Amino acid sequence: MNDNIKNSEPYVIGFKVVMRTEDGRLVSAIRGLTLDRCTYSDQHPTEPAKECGPLAVFSCQESAERFHRAYNLSSIPLEVWSCRYIPNAQNPNRSSSIPLWDSHGNSISWEQLPLDTILAASVQLIELVHPHTENT
User: Fold this and answer.
1) CA dist 24 to 7, 70, 84, 124, Å?
2) How confident is the model at residue 108 (pLDDT cuts 50, 70, 90)?
3) Are 129 and 80 in contact (CB under 8 A)?
4) Which of 90, 94, 121, 122 lies closest to 108 in space, CA to CA?
5) Quick one: average pLDDT of 115-119?
6) What's the whole-model pTM score?
7) What is the distance between the alpha carbons of residues 134 and 60, in angstroms, rounded to a whole number?
8) Which helix (H) or strand (E) holds 123?
9) Chain-wide mean pLDDT for the chain?
10) DSSP assignment, residue 32?
11) Which residues, including other chains, have CB under 8 Å from residue 128's CB and lie 6 or more apart?
12) In terms of C-beta density within 10 A (0-12 exposed, 13-18 middle, 19 or more buried), how is residue 8 classed?
């Protein structure tokens, strides 16, 4: 792990659950919301595509692992990564009705997101902490 990535400012450390596509890309694990299928990487930060936003991460590994256990299926290969993120500057609170949206008009409300979800303006993966395994 690159300590410069892990400790650089103004990033905060969190956890991202991603889905590995058939071609090996790492994309958002949120169903029903494409976010224009942002591809996440440990090589560079990912930002929301134009007309989309923001990105979702977990504040702690336990919450990411819980999400992973609940939605990890053999047909949906989810992985948990540690990440560094920049909090969304206009981070709506839970009283806001639509915190996530994509350019196709799809949206996710706070009620559909796990409690420990944090909204981010930029996310860079650091290290794989829980690979996809069936029935975990």
Assistant:
1) 27, 22, 21, 17
2) confident
3) yes
4) 94
5) 86
6) 0.81
7) 22
8) strand 117-130
9) 79
10) T
11) 79, 80, 81
12) exposed
Q: Which of these, 85, 71, 75, 94, lies nearest to 16 by C-alpha position?
A: 85
Residue whose entry in the numeric block shows the structure tokens 């029903």: 32
Tell me whether the omega of the peptide bond preceding residue 77 falls within 30 degrees of 0, making it cis.
no
Could you give the 3-state DSSP secondary structure of residue 109? Answer: coil
Other CB atoms within 10 Å distance of the CB of residue 56: 24
Q: Would the pLDDT of 116 be above 90?
A: no
What is the pLDDT, as a whole number, of residue 3? 47
For residue 134, count other CB atoms closer than 10 A to its CB. Answer: 9
Quote the CA–CA distance of 16 and 68 in Å, as a whole number: 10
Integer Cα distance of 111 and 134 in angstroms: 27
